[in-house]
Amino acid sequence: MGHDQLFKRVLEKFLKEFLELFFPAVARRLDFGTVTFLDKELPLDFPKGTTRQVDVVARLETHEGEPDIVLVHVEVQSRPERDFARRMFEYSALLWLRDRAPIFPVVLYLQGGKGLTDEEYRLSLFGRELFRFRYATVGLARLRAEEYVGTEPLGVALAALMPGRGTPTRRCSGSRCCGG
């Protein structure tokens, strides 16, 4: 089993802990007793049967009831790629078309990335922005291991991929990085 596959399994097993660790404001809104992991295969081109496969997608109810159901989509990436923002947008669009539920998209960068922040994909035409798609990121290489060593087991395990000293982390407060 490769690293990608291993991390996907870890995220499915510890999704609650992952969100509590990096996005506590989001985690507080979700009812993890209702989590269901969905089919990862998304139809890309209906007549031809071409598909795309996402890493982890979970369906959860919320405590507030508005929205009552959300999807959490997590992609595991070794490091940032040039056209990855467009791919994240495509995944979210396909998930929306398939499930018709709001989506909290996250990328976990095992190497590289900018810490805890947002990235975005913009589409413009003739100098006019048509839309902007934002997603949360966790760039382990820019987080400080010291801040996670004393946390729950998942934080300790992920700290092994973080440098000892570096850019301080910024945990999601719910206002800027994840819209909550």
Give the tags:
two-stranded antiparallel sheet, 6 helices, 29% helix, 180 residues, six-stranded mixed β-sheet, single chain, globular
Can you give a write-up of this model?
It is a single chain. This protein is globular. The longest helix has 16 residues, at about 85-100. The protein has one domain. The protein has helices at about 5-15, 15-20, 25-30, 85-100, 145-150, 155-160; strands at about 30-35, 40-45, 50-55, 55-60, 70-75, 105-110, 115-125, 130-140. The protein has a six-stranded mixed β-sheet, with helices on both faces. Strand 5 (about 70-75), helix 4 and strand 6 form a beta-alpha-beta unit. The protein has six helices and eight strands. It is an alpha/beta fold.
Fraction of residues in H or I helices = 25-40%
The protein's oligomeric status is single chain
How many helices does DSSP assign?
6
Quantity of strands, as a count: 8
Give the SSE order as H and E letters: HHHEEEEEHEEEHH
Class based on secondary structure composition and strand pairing: alpha/beta
Calculate the terminal CA-CA distance, rounded to whole Å: 36 Å
Fraction in beta strands:
25-35%
Radius of gyration: 16 Å
Based on CA inertia axes, which overall geometry fits? Answer: globular
